Amino acid sequence: MSSWLDYTINGLIVGNVYALVAVGLALIFGVSRLINFAQGSIYLVGAYIGWVAVVQLHTPLPLTIIVVAVAAAVVGLIIERFGLRPLQNSVRIAPLLATIGISFVLDQLVMLTFSPNPRALPSQLPDIRFQVGGGTIGPLDLLIAGVGLTSALLLFVFLRYTKLGWAVRATAQDRDAAMQMGVDVNRVNQAVFGIAAALGGVSGLLVGMYYNQIDTAMSLQATLKGVVAEVVGGAGNVPGAVIGSLLLGLVESYGVAMLGTSYRNLFAFLLLVVVLVLRPNGLFVSARQAPPEPLTGTFIAPSRPVHIPRWALLVAVAGFAILPLFPVSFYVLQTLINAWLLGMLALSLTLVAGTMGQVSLGHAALLAIGAYTSALLSLTLAVPVGLAVIGGGLMSAALGTLLISPSFRLRGHYVSIATLAIGEIVALVILNWESVTRGPIGISGIPPLSLFGYDLIGPTSIYWFSLAVMVVLALLQGRLLTSHLGRSFRAIRDDDIAARAYGLGLNRYKSLAFIFGGFAAGISGGIAAHLYSYINHETFNTQQSILALTVVILGGLGNVVGAILGSVALVGLPEVFRIAAEYRILIYGIVLLLLVRFRPQGLLGTV
Amino acid sequence: MSNIDRRSLVKGSLATMMAGAAFSRAAFAQSSEPILLGVSGPLTGPNAQYGTQWKQGFDLALDEIQAAGGINGRKLAYQFEDSQSDPRQSVAIAQKFVSDPRIVMELGDFSSPASMAASPIYQRGGLVQFGFTNSHPDFTKGGDFMWSTSVSQADEQPLLASYAVKRLGLKKLAVLHLNTDWGRTSRDYFVKAAKEYGAEIAVTEGYIAEERDFRSTLVRVRDANPDGLILISYYSDGALIARQARQVGLKQTMCAASSVYSPKFLELGGEAVENVHLGTRYFPEDPRPEVKKFIAGFKAKYGGQEPDAFNAYSYDAMNMAAAVLKIGGTDRRAIRDAFAKVKDVSSVIFGQATFDVESRRVKGAMNAELVVRKGQFALWDGKPT
């Protein structure tokens, strides 16, 4: 019994740690309706500034906190001014992508400056421990709790009783009305970003001290947990973020208590999905409040798509088809194979995100389902590889649609968050379901691709095969989009209320889009599994989901040719910059930012 | 002398001169163009730190190899391609290396998905894929072009189990392991050996690499009431677990796999890692000459920095590559065959490394029994803690 007291205390302590990140996220969401994926990077920056202050300048703790808060706030202001303000009148997805780009740039700059080796960040507090339950609590635990609660309290006071706070709330409620009433919306945004960044930086410092360890890979995990906590509490609600964080910490801790350590993150993401399904606005935002997302198609940039004549497409496909007949290196072919595989994934995503308006951040899960199904069918049931790949596609279509269906009633950013969670859940299930997936050991010895009894093992034959599959999928999708069904999809994207009023069954149409999309992604994953011959739970990760989304935005949402063009570009770019080694991700992040800034509708435009 | 004769003489001497020039140019090309190895590994992304450590070990080994006259008179060099340890990129890199005639052998990749996804391409392309961090049991089963100096966990874990159970007398164990292919395989070998030595496994807990908070895990461990904790961890997570174990009030003896051996383990763990026992493949105060040379060379080259396990792996790998190339020359197939022929190559990890032709791995890792005393790694003096 005493152990449950310990689990509770541990859950609250780690919940406090999450709260430090979540409060900053909530504040920004409250005002700009933006999930700031760069918050984890500011947290990272704060930790390293803290390291410089503590280890090299030997500042005392109060001064360290001030230095970190001010420096992080400056970073926040710079992000707001140069990264996000230019996107103010842009579509809602643009700033979201911009924050992803900013996080790449910040993480990479920190890594280049400080090297990727982890560093010790000594706590500057005395090492005394108080006995509580079977465990102990130290001064730093209390400080973290204090900072979390105090900042939430101060924010509450600030929002309720100061003039700037009123302006912030007014802007959050109705930006245009606030502007008409003379509120300087830019100044409000600036203030909010500065405060959120200062909080983020200080949280990085405190968490670094808490673990006596900082490293450049810590930002993504912080963002993920922060986002989960914030959305659970109710996006944009500061006290909600604190309570959501504590709840998340408790759920994780009890999850470990009941089932063991390897289920920890599974519980975190399941909590998120359950909350989103039961209370789409989060636990502490009342349902009566206006929905935090606009109802209709403003999430996606309207544009006139670039029309590419049919003969040009034919020439391009023919050109790529005869490419292996020329003396090109296998490296080029392999790079293009990667592009075709990514192209299939992008087709899938552009259908659900672009045509249907359901932005998915967990699309790699569909790859994983297809890959595991195909690998296991061919290995354990000796199904011929060609059929196994199709089986992978069907399984992704069925399971993917089933998993995603609870999120059909969500809108805008909430769909992205739910899909992100589902992506993580699939990876964690693969890791833990050992009797089927072989857990962390992964599946090795997957037979090579074959067709009618002939093994496709040379890069040339794999190239032709994957190109052909992609072209067929693209043609099918192109046909789909010009049909009545495609118009219905777009109608739902542009105005779901009007579409429903017109008699369209939203869930059925969304399911149809995910079935087709899941099939294409599953085929891609299946081919990849046979190409790699070894897969494990890390082969298809969040990074690939983000890459797929970037491709789709780059090409133009809903644009079939754009998805393929984007794939070739984004598989090619890092290869072109391969010489730049350590700077590759930095360049990638900057390219992403420039793209969002200057061509948010993508290269070929939204269809 | 006839005209014809003179002409032919001139012609002849010209031909000789040209041939001579051509010959000397060829000889020049031979000696100045270095023999090139391909390296596929992470320089960016979440595993970037390991790629950085590889480079340090490679560069140190290369300095020594060039100073000793290179490979039969030619220099040795490597081309490092950043894969981020991502299989999509490692397969493209594999095609790049296979189709580049200058590359004679490949080293890497870091993680199993990235390495084993590339294996079929190296195997078919007839280029040796020399993995030196690839402990996945199936890595060398990819084909006869896959060789590895990564210590098989089948070798290492029984040594750790023997240290914990037989030498330290721990009878009831809790095992915490990184839930990856490496951690999982290691755990299975450890548990099997520990049981054979008569220990009871009270609980095993697997955690993912991004995990930072272990307090609730440690409460589970505490409730299982073991008399020893076994950490199958890298140095960063090992240090985190040790710190939090002390914070939740666990005072049991801790034993860790050799992968925590790093000065960073002491730095990140602080007082909490005092008295942690670990087996290690090498140790700075180890009197073996190859270890002394490595440590001294490393500190001199990198401003007094202490090397750690990944530095040693990459240093050994480069030296092994050099030894193989000295026998195999620059022909890819001959290089593969040379792996079976190298004998007793001086190695930090193994002392003397010779491949087992069946498994294509090296057998017989050294294990020094260490303990952390006063913030330093020290040879264990046999006293219980």
Any overview of this molecule?
The complex is a heterodimer of chains A (607) and B (385). Chain A has 607 residues and is an all-alpha fold. Chain A has two domains: 21-231, no CATH class; 310-598, ABC transporter involved in vitamin B12 uptake, BtuC (Orthogonal Bundle), CATH 1.10.3470. Chain A has helices at residues 2-32, 39-56, 61-84, 93-114, 139-161, 163-173, 175-180, 185-211, 218-233, 238-259, 264-278, 310-322, 330-355, 364-380, 385-404, 412-432, 434-437, 459-482, 484-494, 496-501, 506-532, 542-555, 560-576, 584-598; strands at 130-132, 135-137, 450-451, 454-455. Chain A has a two-stranded antiparallel ribbon with strand order 1-2. Chain A has a two-stranded antiparallel sheet with strand order 3-4. In chain A, strand 3 (450-451) and strand 4 (454-455) form a beta hairpin. In chain A, helix 6 packs across helix 8. Chain A is globular, with a radius of gyration of 24 Å. Chain A starts with a helix and ends in a 9-residue tail after the last helix. Residues 292-297 of chain A have low confidence and may be disordered. With 385 residues, chain B is an alpha/beta fold. Chain B folds into two domains: 35-151 and 288-353, Rossmann fold; 154-280 and 368-379, 3-Layer(aba) Sandwich (Rossmann fold). Chain B is built from twelve helices and 16 strands. Chain B has helices spanning 3-32, 48-67, 87-98, 112-125, 153-167, 181-196, 215-224, 235-247, 263-269, 289-301, 309-328, 332-341; strands spanning 35-41, 76-82, 103-108, 129-131, 146-148, 172-178, 200-207, 228-232, 253-256, 277-280, 345-347, 351-353, 355-356, 361-362, 368-373, 376-379. In chain B, the strands form four sheets. Chain B has a seven-stranded mixed β-sheet, sandwiched between helices. In chain B, strands 2-1-3-4-5 form a five-stranded parallel β-sheet, sandwiched between helices. In chain B, helix 5 crosses helix 6 (181-196) and helix 8 packs parallel to helix 9. The longest helix of chain B is centred in the first third of the chain and has 30 residues, at 3-32. The radius of gyration of chain B is 25 Å and the shape is globular. Mean pLDDT of chain B is 87; it is low at 1-29. Chains A and B meet through helix 1, helix 10, helix 13 and helix 21 of A and helix 2, strand 2, helix 3, helix 4 and helix 6 of B.
